[in-house]
Amino acid sequence: MGKKKLAISLLVFAGVLSFSETKVEAANQHHLLNQMHYHAINNIYKPAQNCAVLQNRILDQYCKQPTTKVAYQHVQKNTQQATQQQANQQQAAQQQATQQQAVQQQAVQQQAVQQQEAAQQQAAQQQAAQQQAAQQQAAQKQAAQQQAAQQQAAQQQAVQQQQRTHHNYTPQQATGHHNRHH
């Protein structure tokens, strides 16, 4: 009877021990799952590298237990997909930023070309206006010279005609006067 009691006690002790061991194991798994859940929720606030390292550490511990191997493989697949998706999103964001930068640079270059063309056009207009002003000045000067020359010629002609008239008229008058007396 003593041996029987001892055997029963050992069985009960082994049962309690195995039960408490599974309870501790379950508590560890629960803690790890809570950590993973917390980490997944706060994934936004942490750098991607830290997330991957922490998840891999947790999942490695989790995977060592044969009962959770299938669950680990499923979680690992999801983690890899999430990591790939995050990498794709970062790459897409970088491409978009590069494209936006290229578009902005092109717009700046176009604006610079337009400003340069406007400056060249303004310079050409200014040069044309200066040429036109110089031509007008030259034309006015030439017109004034021609007018002065014409006036001078007209005055000389008038003086010559007046001298001729006076010269022609005076002797006739004198001759006529002289003839009358004689």
**Total number of distinct structural domains:** 2
Instruction: Kindly report the average pLDDT value.
Output: 75
Beta-strand fraction estimate: under 5%
Structural class per helix/strand content?
mainly alpha
Structure annotation, total helices: 3
Overall shape: it is: rod-shaped
Q: Major sheet, described briefly? A: none
Could you state the order of secondary-structure elements as H and E? Answer: HHH
Which runs of at least 5 residues are low in confidence (pLDDT < 50)? none
Helix content: over 70%
Would you count the extended β strands for me? 0
Q: Give the N-terminus to C-terminus distance in angstroms.
A: 207 Å
Rg over CA atoms, rounded to whole Å, is 58 Å
Defining traits:
single chain, mainly alpha, 0% strand, 182 residues
Task: Give an overview of the whole structure.
- The chain is 93% helix and 0% strand.
- It is mainly α.
- It folds into 2 domains: 91 residues; 43 residues.
- The longest helix has 113 residues.
- It starts with a helix and ends with a helix.
- The model has no long low-confidence stretch (mean pLDDT 75).
Structure at a glance:
Helices cover 93% and strands 0% of the residues. The protein has helices spanning 2-41, 48-63, 69-181.
